[in-house]
Write a structure and sequence with these properties.
This protein has about 475 residues and is of the alpha/beta class. Helices cover about 35% and strands about 20% of the residues. Strands 1, 2, 3, 4, 5, 6 and 7 form a 7-stranded mixed beta sheet that branches. A 5-stranded mixed beta barrel has the order 18-19-20-22-21.
C-alpha cells in the first residue's frame, strides 16, 4: 500500500512523439501508482527501438499492453474489464492484435491469464522489460510468452525513459525498485521483489538530461525511497556482506537528496514514498537546508493503533510515529505531511479505529489516501487472518476517516491565507482557461490569473482565498528560483 495512487490518472493511454521509420503501433495503458507510470515510460523507450510508435486508437494497435496494479481489488477488476475490451476488439476488428499484461498483476496471475483464461499473449513482470524483444518474437511465432522472474539487481538505470504525456515540467525518476518491508496487507515484495537501489551517477545523469530539456521539478521515486542505499549494486539486505570499502563509500538517501539539490539548484525536488521506520533525521536536515527541496513528506501510517500496526507487520508503533512527526515539525516548520490509511483491517475494533482518528488529529495531516481493507490474494493477511470486520463497519469507519481528513485539510489549507507562496506553474486550471495551476513547496494546488506568466515559471503568489484543497491568489512577480 506504500504507494500514492492518483485516481485521475488511472487508465491513461500514453503517447509520445513518433520515431521516423517505425511502422508498428503500440497502445499502452497504466493503472496503479506512480511507479507503474514510470515503468511504462521505460517500456515505451524499449519498444521504440523495436519499431513501435504509440497510438491512442486501440483499434489500430499491433500490440496492446496494460501496466497493472495488485494493491486493491478495484484495480484488478478494472484491468480485467479492460482485457475483456481488448479481446473484443481483437475478435471483431483487429485479429492480428497482440495483448500483454505488465507489472504486478502479471507476476501474480501469470498462469491464470495465459493458460486458464487465455486472455493474453504475453505476461511480463516488473523486472523483465528488457526481455520484451525476445518475448515479442515468441508471440510472433505463435507461442505464449512469459517472463516474471524477479531480479536481484535490475534497476533500469541504463534505460533513458521516454516522457509519456509529459507536461515538460514535472518528471518521476526511479531510484529504488522492490521492497523489503513485509507488511501483511501488501503484495509488493512478492510482485516487485526485494529492494535494490540504482547507481547514483545514473540518477544524476537522468536528472541532467531532464534539466537540459527544460524540466523544472523531479520526484525521486521508489516503493521506499528513505532506505535507498547504493554500495556497488545488489540487494539492500546484503549490505552487511559488503566489503569495508563498499560500506565506507556507500551513498544513502540523505546523501543522494543533497547531491541532487546542490547540483541542480534551480530545479525543485520531491520524493515518494517514505516508510516511517526508515526515515532518518539526516534526511529532515537536508530538506530544511535546501530551498529547492519541497517541504512535503508523504508518510503512510495505515493505522493509529499500535496493536493493528503489529498485526500489519509495520515496523513502528503509534508512539514512534508520533515522535517522528514531532521531529519533522521541529526541524521543518510548516512541513506538509500526508497519509495512507486502511480501515477495517482484520481484528480492528472500535477502540483501534478511535486510535486512528486521534492520531490524525495529533498529526493534522494536510491530505491523505484512505481505503477500506480488501483482502489481497498471496499476502500474509489473506493466508493467516480472517477478514472479520463487517463491510458496513469498514465503510462507516472509512467515511469517518475521510470526513475528519476533510476538516483537517480545510484547516491546513487556510494557514496560507494572506501568505505569499512560491508556485511552479504546471498547467492551465481545470475550471478556468484564464487561470494557471501549480503547487507550492508544501504540495498545495494553487490557481491564479494567467497574466504574462507561462508553464515552467516559478512565481510568487499572494493567497487571498482557499477551498479545502486549493489555494486561490494573485501573482506578484517571479521567485528567486526563476532562471530567465
Amino acid at each position: 500500500m506504500e504507494k500514492e495512487i492518483d485516481e485521475k490518472k488511472q487508465g491513461t493511454s500514453l503517447v509520445l512523439q513518433e520515431k521516423e521509420g517505425n511502422t508498428k503501433k503500440l497502445f499502452i495503458e497504466s493503472y496503479g501508482c506512480a511507479m507503474n507510470f514510470s515503468d511504462s515510460e521505460i517500456v515505451a523507450s524499449i519498444l521504440t527501438e523495436q519499431g513501435y510508435n504509440t497510438t491512442q486508437k486501440l483499434e489500430e494497435a499491433d500490440l496492446v499492453l496494460v501496466n497493472t496494479c495488485s494493491i486493491r481489488d478495484k484495480a484488478e477488476q478494472t484491468v480485467r474489464k479492460r482485457l475483456e475490451k481488448y479481446n473484443a476488439v481483437k475478435r471483431s476488428i483487429n485479429p492480428g492484435m497482440k495483448v500483454g499484461v505488465l507489472g504486478c498483476m502479471a507476476e501474480r496471475l501469470k498462469s491464470q491469464f495465459l493458460e486458464e483464461e487465455k486472455i493474453v499473449d504475453m505476461v511480463v513482470g516488473p523486472d523483465a522489460y528488457k526481455d520484451l524483444p525476445n518475448l515479442l518474437k515468441e508471440v510472433d511465432e505463435g507461442r505464449d510468452a512469459i517472463n516474471v522472474i524477479l531480479s536481484k539487481d535490475e534497476t533500469y538505470g541504463d534505460i533513458a525513459p521516454v516522457r509519456l504525456n509529459s507536461n515538460g515540467i514535472n518528471a518521476f525518476v526511479s531510484i529504488t525498485r522492490g521492497c523489503d518491508n513485509m507488511c501483511t496487507f501488501c503484495v509488493v515484495p512478492f510482485t516487485r521483489g526485494r529492494e535494490r537501489s540504482r547507481e547514483p551517477q545514473s540518477i544524476i545523469e537522468e536528472i541532467k538530461d531532464l534539466w537540459d530539456r527544460g524540466f523544472k521539478e523531479i520526484c525521486l521515486l521508489g516503493q521506499n525511497v528513505d532506505s535507498y542505499l547504493w554500495y556497488g549494486g545488489g540487494l539492500k539486505k546484503d549490505f552487511e556482506k559488503a566489503s569495508e570499502m563498499q560500506k565506507a563509500t556507500a551513498v544513502d538517501f540523505a546523501q543522494l537528496l543533497e547531491m541532487c539539490a546542490v547540483q541542480f539548484p534551480k530545479m525543485r525536488f520531491r520524493f515518494s514514498t517514505s516508510n516511517p521506520q526508515d526515515m532518518h533525521e539526516e534526511v529532515l536536515h537536508v530538506i530544511a537546508k535546501h530551498e529547492n527541496i519541497c517541504n512535503y513528506i508523504h508518510l503512510p501510517v495505515q493505522s493509529g493503533s499500535t496493536r493493528i500496526l503489529k498485526e500489519m507487520n509495520r515496523q513502528h508503533t503509534r508512539e514512534e510515529y508520533m515522535e517522528l512527526v514531532d521531529k519533522i515539525k521541529r526541524i521543518i516548520p510548516g512541513c506538509s505531511i500526508s497519509q495512507d490509511m486502511i480501515t477495517g483491517f482484520p481484528t480492528e475494533t472500535e477502540e483501534d479505529h478511535k486510535d486512528t482518528l486521534s492520531l490524525m488529529e495529533y498529526v493534522e495531516y494536510d491530505f491523505g489516501y484512505m481505503f477500506a481493507y480488501s483482502e489481497r490474494p498471496g499476502t500474509l493477511a489473506a493466508r493467516k487472518m480472517e477478514d472479520d470486520v463487517a463491510e458496513a463497519d469498514k465503510m462507516r469507519r472509512l467515511q469517518e476517516v475521510v470526513d475528519l481528513q476533510q476538516e483537517l485539510s480545510a484547516k491546513r489549507t487556510a494557514r496560507f491565507l494572506d501568505q505569499t507562496v512560491e508556485i511552479l506553474i504546471e498547467k492551465e486550471s481545470k475550471k478556468s482557461d484564464q487561470h494557471w495551476s501549480g503547487r507550492n513547496s508544501e504540495n498545495m494546488v494553487t490557481v491564479f490569473p494567467k497574466e504574462n506568466y507561462k508553464p515552467g515559471d516559478f512565481v510568487l503568489v499572494k493567497v487571498t482565498d482557499c477551498t479545502t484543497a486549493t489555494l486561490i491568489g494573485e501573482a506578484v512577480g517571479y521567485s528567486a528560483m526563476q532562471t530567465n
